[in-house]
Design goal:
Number of helices: 7
Shape: elongated
Strand order of the largest sheet: 5-1-9-10-11
Strand content: 25-35%
Mean pLDDT: 77
InterPro entries: Rad1_Rec1_Rad17
Pfam family, one: Rad1
Distance between the termini: 52 Å
Largest sheet: 5 strands, antiparallel
Helix content: 10-25%
Order of helices and strands: EHEEEEEEEHEEEEHEEEHHEEHHE
CATH architecture of the largest domain: Box
Keywords: DNA damage, DNA repair, Nucleus
Subcellular location: Nucleus
Protein name: Rad1/Rec1/Rad17
Low-confidence stretches: 68-82, 106-135, 242-279
Length: 331
């Protein structure tokens, strides 16, 4: 019998990096789809982490769909009347990460539970783990059938090591934390490093509450505050930049060269639209959409447990961009 799923990767570092971003929980629900593996974790229905291992991360990805099974999640295929199963199960995420560490991917032990920083150097690049030593390695994920263990096989220089993780049935009421996409009143996209550094700066005062404040009309336009800790409240503000001013000119003034540039831009509708877009939010943001309902006034204010936000720091530290979204229900 052919396995239900087989995925082979020659670079487990990508897999480990993605999965470690949601490593704040001990167990994860895995769903196998034709496009990749979906891992989800949660704690008390107040925080949820999702990681998707796209099939492009594997050198070989095989998913053998089977007819509908009452014990597995099913989805209707629009091109076929038969139902295709997308199996899902629960595995130990901590055991899976430890298994991937066999590849030499390791981390510096965190000095305390609050430390969210990641190592600045990759141990895989040290003198004792040169790239040449990491060649000729392959990692194979395999799931034979419903109820079978989730197998991880590591082959190196003719030696193969296999780790089989016991799979469990997921809870019947398990579902994603809902986000009302039709009621989004705040959407901010920015470089992840800037948000990560801001959270790390606030974390130094050991706060218990993270306050978020955003407005498109009043200062501060976007601000994060840490409160509730043993020290005083600290705030990080993202200010609006002076997009129309040239270097060396006073605020509100333009040089002759600047005036000439503005004249050219006035004839270029595309550049004019791009310049207008850049004024819509703080300089640190790529997208800044804040539209609170009339009942809230002109400012959106939200409060979160800092301990929960801290668990997302690992993902922010390795990402390129981050999206902050809020709905009217959450405010």
């Amino acid at each position: 019998m052919e396995p239900l799923f087989t995925g082979v990767s020659n670079n487990a570092n990508h897999l480990y990096t993605l999965l470690s971003c949601i490593g704040f929980a001990s167990k994860a629900t895995v769903q196998i789809t034709p496009e990749g593996l979906r891992f989800s974790v949660e704690e008390g229905r107040v925080i949820q982490g999702l990681a998707f291992l796209d099939k492009s991360l594997f050198t070989s990805y095989t998913f053998n769909a089977t007819p509908g099974d009452a014990n597995q999640a099913t989805i209707s295929d629009t091109q076929d009347s038969d139902e295709v199963t997308y199996p899902h199960f629960v595995v130990s995420l901590s055991a899976l990460l430890e298994t991937l560490k066999i590849f030499g991917i390791n981390e510096v032990q965190e000095p305390n539970a609050r430390d969210t920083s990641l190592p600045h150097t990759n141990p895989a690049s040290s003198a004792f783990a040169a790239p040449a030593l990491l060649m000729d390695r392959s990692c194979t994920f395999q799931y034979l059938s419903h109820g079978a263990p989730f197998s991880i096989a590591i082959a190196e220089a003719g030696v193969q090591t296999t780790c089989e993780l016991v799979t469990y049935e997921p809870d019947a009421d398990e579902s994603d934390i809902p986000l009302q996409r039709d009621a989004i009143i705040m959407k901010i996209i920015m470089r992840s490093a800037w948000l990560y550094n801001s959270i790390a700066e606030l974390d130094s005062s050991a706060p218990t509450i993270l306050k978020l404040s955003a407005s498109s009309k009043q200062k501060p336009y976007f601000a994060l505050s840490g409160a509730g800790g043993p020290f005083s409240e600290s705030t990080v503000e993202f200010s609006m930049g002076q997009h129309n001013e040239m270097p060396g000119t006073a605020p509100g003034q333009t040089s002759q060269a600047s005036q000439g540039i503005h004249k050219v831009l006035a004839d270029d509708e595309t550049s004019q639209a791009r310049a207008a877009k850049s004024k819509l939010g703080p300089t640190a943001t790529e997208t800044f959409m804040v539209s609170p309902p009339s009942s809230m006034g002109e400012r959106i204010k939200q409060r979160y447990r800092f301990a929960l936000v801290r668990k997302a720091a690992r993902a922010m530290s390795v990402a390129n961009k981050v999206s902050i979204r809020g709905t009217s229900r959450a405010c």
